[in-house]
Amino acid sequence: MVTSNNTTQGFSNSLIDLVKNHIIEDMIRQVKSNSKIMLVDSYTHDIIFSIFNRTELNNENIELIYKIDRKDSFPNYDAIYFVSPTETSIQYIINDFNKKNMYASANIFFTNTISDNLIGKLKIISNSIEILKELYIDFFVFESRVFTIRSQDCFQKIYNSKTQDNALEDISEKVISLLATLGDYPDIRYYDPTGTNSTISSKFAYKLQEKLDNLADIDGDFPKKTPYKRTNMIILDRSVDLVGPFLHDFYYQGMANDISEIENGVIYRYTVSNGANKQEKLNESEEFWNDIRHMYISDAMEYIKEKVDECTKVFASDDEKVTLNQLKLQTYEIPKQLVIKDKAAMHQKLIEECMNYYTDAKEINRDVATLEQDLADERNNTSKYLEQIETMIQDRNLNMREKMQLIMIFVLCSKTISKETISNLCENACIDEKKVYDLLDIEKQNNNVIISDDIITIKNTDLKDYLNEKRKKLSKNQRDEISDLSRYITPIRILTRDLIKDKLKDKFFKHTNLSIANEANSTLKKPKSHKILYDDVALEIYKPTWARRTSDKNIYDLRTYGPRIIIFILGGMSYAEMREVYELVKEFNRDVIIGSTSILTPKSIMDEIYMIKTDIKSRNTVNLRKKLVRSYTLNKDLPRSSRSIKRK
């Protein structure tokens, strides 16, 4: 019997619930009308529908939801504008009320801070404006413990010295909106092993600290008073662990997003047996997905089969005589069981799609995945796998992206490697070796890459040595099957555990504000009870208006057990890192949130690496991402002779 892995129920700290309540209380219900229309831009449209469904909005008297460029007039409806603070949005609002009022009133809510110049432009329609407010929701809630910051070409901009500063400025504005929404003024710690404040993490951390200080100066109610300890925030960038996102994931959510085409990690489109096209939202409101997304793939398949069997048993009866009441009960259960059966069938199809990637003619993919784990294991000497890699990259069942991915993992995990070895590997795989050096440029952020005339040396840093020692202890409890294909433990798991236990080393993670750090480390009075229920505290004193007291006394605040922890990764996070956060919440009963600029799969990080140093303007004119597999090749149509590789 496979049990559910759901770790989100019973806790009050869901980001989805917090942001949903914020929008309802501080935006929707601020407009006292029974007839409301919501107008959104493309960006805010995605924010709204990442946490609401249409029924929930209709229950709040939102009868219509339109894009802001719609020209339809509803003079009896009060308009709620939820838009980005841009000149385009402002002009659309002005046009709606400048000559003829298209709506009864304008109630304008911005995702973030709006400039005085743009506010000044709204004076022309001031008589029509009832509410003008900065809502501070400039981020996307992906799951109850996961948020993302969408910023175009963010990965390339972060790792490009010419665009880095502007990119970090833009990202910091969005992260500040998250902290403002949470009411958190955290103790910020950033990765900086040299203490020179030269890392990307340190630059970003100080930008964030400055904006936090400014927000506290202008808003007397920030941060919100709570009975809990100050939040801890860790900031690092992708260079701390480049290997992890390249590894194939064998847990359901990560594997599905790696192998299948799932839009934004949520929308799964598929074809059923009768040829009809269907789509399903894979989010926490979908019961099966919520239960099995963090399961190992074979466990997920077993769980779904059990659910299908349960549906079958509902209608099965050994009795020859069926009473009228039994028949009524079965009739009542039919619609419910049909829904369950359809959901189970969808998941069964997706799981089979994932597992087929590693079976039959594509058995090479399983061998590659096992080799990836061997390479990532610091206890192994990577040079002994060179001959195996040479054979694999000439296998026709691997596409160019997969070959390049394997080569990059090999290079990152090697202590030393010759330039000739890299050249020969790339030539035999028919891929562009310049992209390997682009990857090494990111790894250089840790000051551990030395490139001489012939040899590339990737030194072990103190942090890497520390992480490897921790991995040895944590890996002892892994199942054999899981340790074979998913034995890699990410730094996020290790570092967050250390922070929970108050053992995170200052040597690796510095504080932006020492006075705050000293305050956080000082002895504070512990709660009388290990678990503080909402109804035991006068929460209206401590909580923002949108975070209402719950009526469920079994729901409690995880900050009772210790301070909230926010992890933010510049350059993208993996599904494995997200899953490990949920596991830590379950293990320690702590409020842990993870966020990043994007969510990475092995495919998407390959795409990001490929586009580094590609001219941004030229990228915008073509849909480059759909052509990347072909683009990895060098003169693919020309025959190349296979060259032997000298071992170094």
Task: Describe this structure in a few short sentences.
With 648 residues, the protein is α/β, with parallel strands linked by helices. It folds into 4 domains: 107 residues, Rossmann fold, CATH 3.40.50; 211 residues, Rossmann fold (3-Layer(aba) Sandwich); 109 residues, Sec1/Munc18 (SM) protein, domain 3a (Syntaxin Binding Protein 1, Chain A, domain 2); 94 residues, Alpha Horseshoe (Serine Threonine Protein Phosphatase 5, Tetratricopeptide repeat).
3D structure, described in words:
By secondary structure, the chain is α/β, with parallel strands linked by helices. The chain has 27 helices and 20 strands. The strands form five sheets. The chain has a seven-stranded mixed sheet, sandwiched between helices. A five-stranded parallel sheet has the order 2-1-3-4-5. A three-stranded antiparallel sheet has the order 10-11-12, with no helix packed on it. It is 44% helix and 14% strand. A hairpin with a 2-residue loop joins strand 6 (140-143) and strand 7 (146-148). The chain has four domains: 28-134, Rossmann fold; 142-241 and 490-600, 3-Layer(aba) Sandwich (Rossmann fold); 252-360, Syntaxin Binding Protein 1, Chain A, domain 2 (Alpha-Beta Complex); 379-458 and 609-614 and 624-631, Serine Threonine Protein Phosphatase 5, Tetratricopeptide repeat (Alpha Horseshoe).
Gross CATH architecture of the largest domain = 3-Layer(aba) Sandwich
Bin the strand percentage.
Answer: 5-15%
The CATH topology of the largest domain comes to Rossmann fold
Radius of gyration: 27 Å
Which CATH class of the largest domain is shown? Alpha Beta
Using the alpha-carbon principal axes, give the shape.
globular
Number of helices, where a helix is a run of at least 4 consecutive DSSP H or I residues = 27
Helicity range of the residues? 40-55%
Number of strands: 20
Name given to the CATH homologous superfamily of the largest domain = Sec1/Munc18 (SM) protein, domain 2
Structural class: alpha/beta
The low-confidence parts are 7-11, 523-554, 618-648
Return the average pLDDT rounded to an integer. 84
How many domains, as an integer? 4
Gap between N and C termini: 49 Å
Q: Largest beta sheet: what is the strand line-up?
A: 6-7-19-17-9-8-16
| Major sheet size, sense and barrel closure | 7 strands, mixed
